[in-house]
Amino acid sequence: MIVCELISVGTELLLGEITNTNARFLAEQMAAMGIAVERQCTVGDNPARLREDFLAAWERSGIVILTGGLGPTADDITKEVICEALGLTLEADAFQMGRIEAFFRQRGLPMGESNRKQAMVPAGCVVLPNENGTAPGCWIQKDGKCAALLPGPPREMQPLFLSELKPRLAAYASGVIVSHHLRTIGLGESRMAELAQDYLDLANPTVAPYAKDAESYLRVSAAAPTQAEAEALCRPILKKLKEILGEAAYSVDKSLEQTVIDLLRASKQTVALAESCTGGGIAARLTDVPGASDVFGWGVVSYSNDCKQALLGVQGATLARHGAVSAECAREMAQGILTRSGADFGLAVTGIAGPGSDGTAKEVGLIYLAVADRNVVLARKLETGRNDREYNRIAAAKQALALLRELLLTQQP
Amino acid sequence: MIVCELISVGTELLLGEITNTNARFLAEQMAAMGIAVERQCTVGDNPARLREDFLAAWERSGIVILTGGLGPTADDITKEVICEALGLTLEADAFQMGRIEAFFRQRGLPMGESNRKQAMVPAGCVVLPNENGTAPGCWIQKDGKCAALLPGPPREMQPLFLSELKPRLAAYASGVIVSHHLRTIGLGESRMAELAQDYLDLANPTVAPYAKDAESYLRVSAAAPTQAEAEALCRPILKKLKEILGEAAYSVDKSLEQTVIDLLRASKQTVALAESCTGGGIAARLTDVPGASDVFGWGVVSYSNDCKQALLGVQGATLARHGAVSAECAREMAQGILTRSGADFGLAVTGIAGPGSDGTAKEVGLIYLAVADRNVVLARKLETGRNDREYNRIAAAKQALALLRELLLTQQP
Known about the structure:
With 413 residues, chain A is an alpha/beta fold. Chain A has helices spanning 11-14, 21-33, 47-60, 78-86, 94-107, 113-116, 154-169, 189-195, 227-245, 256-266, 281-287, 305-312, 316-322, 327-341, 389-410; strands at 3-9, 36-43, 63-67, 90-92, 120-122, 126-128, 137-142, 145-150, 176-184, 206-212, 215-224, 249-252, 271-275, 296-302, 345-351, 366-372, 377-383. In chain A, strand 6 and strand 7 form a beta hairpin.
């Protein structure tokens, strides 16, 4: 098995200003390809230390992947240091120079001399075009080994890795590991793990529970010589786990937003939103998915009571008697947006995200959800018991989508 | 200045199963104490590699902090390897043995022989009690250097570091490092760096540019014996950089959302939102900030044209002539939400986030922003040049908030 080392370059990492998510992403990708990552290290924007660590990694392993330090400024040193260490020269790449010039022209921004530095590449390397920024990646092969230089920002690095580097690394892979996530909502991690208990000691595939942002997953991972064989190992286990977990298991690998959008699209229906404590968070989640406009056209963020009355038709008497955080208000919000929009479903959330309460005796973490169609209005109370604004907003958004999913499932033939 | 290295131990990190948040936490803590972290590395549960990396770090630096590998199972090897490398023996600690026995008794769990391993500590070390788990930390002093062993789970490691290790490290701290971020929007990283060029070679404070999610920052970091002295070093540099960068520098350390909310609150004004391509993302950003309800009450996510007409009063003729992605539509959206809501400002966004276009010849990444108050309506065109839905949505949301800020600043006395 070929051995790989990862080097993250950037003083901001050593100062603890950002979390190193690149190391995790790359480690996960390499593991899935059956390439062993034996070490990961982080160095600052310091030529001597980067040189020392790179040469040690190059000596020990067959593949070295570096991220960061490809930017336009003087403290971006990765290309220069690696070239010097490997005895290569830097040369201008005409294609990259043209791309960088076009990038600035399109944005109407002045192009600084420093940006030309980004078009310099190690002589003889394969230039990996970066569709999401000005720093291209580089793929260097020398003495039967290879080094890859990737940009530091994750939204540039990840697509560049997947489209350009991964196919080149595949030649070094010794098998595959396939992982799937059976995603559940509403059960909680411990209950999910109890139900799946008989499967948690399997060797291949392995089954492991974990919790993330108000959902719980079971990760099913299989190792095999080929993708097809690994998939064949996972399939029967996923099927059994789905049976055991029932309706709470809403998808394999697919997000809750995508799951709800697919159910709506398949039945040619639409949803409109009326959000209070989630403050646009449900709309933002749905519209993160390309093509959301097929099933979503109307949203109201009624953060104030006058907006709830004016745009959603919530009754003043309801607000006076029950308050804005009540099942009654949630129902009227859901019916209001349903009627105004002409959508097939109206989905509403009102609650107290915290840190402060709403001036009543109601507890932080108290949330009411409601979903309406032309026949019924369902309301549900959620008490997270947490004074954590971010968690409460995420949990409210996800539980609202889960409630809509439940109503959609009752329509299934 | 004393130099420190961090070593994270755990195969799960090299497989990419978890993100290394310990490295960031420790790096941030050390930076704040004025102890320079020069390297961080991650190794698996492999004795030979851990030994090699530990000895290299011990040779190079005065402080080595290791996290992970203190658990009860056979693959937890950190104590054994470090003892062997430093020529120390492992011995049972009677107090720890009692604590571990009590831990299991209290929970009514059977205590395995393997758990006794957790009460073994390097001879002569200071045992650091772990209030949140069974693995104690260790503080080893030898040859004028020190090594600390901490448990891997963050919720055990962090409190143990703060209560037991940080006070001991304070003796090695040569002062404090204070960092501030001068945040800019609209300039781009290279242009910002060029304007600030005269300051990028300073030694103390240092000034370093970086880019994040459609914004650019200058990090100003000063080292000094005390917090007050470090702040005093940063202050004049931040002031000069603000003058040089002008209005584009919107805050020191404060998010754009918070900056806009503070400006609105100070002038007792409110904003209402009309969002198309950002799909609720601006509302979600504003309402992430506790107390946003002081300045925000009304939002409409008009993802469809009929919603734009019905809730915002956009003219059918405007949509027919210019399309939904046009300056004209953005203006009418901003004026529409201003009028409906009675807020002081109406802020609107319409654009093409991608990956597909909108059926016209318009390019993905084309976005129109508009802000209205009772006197003026300003519209602005933004072309990101990227086919990256997530980036386009973030850039549109941030540029919209920046546009509102510009109008707010014109009101300043």
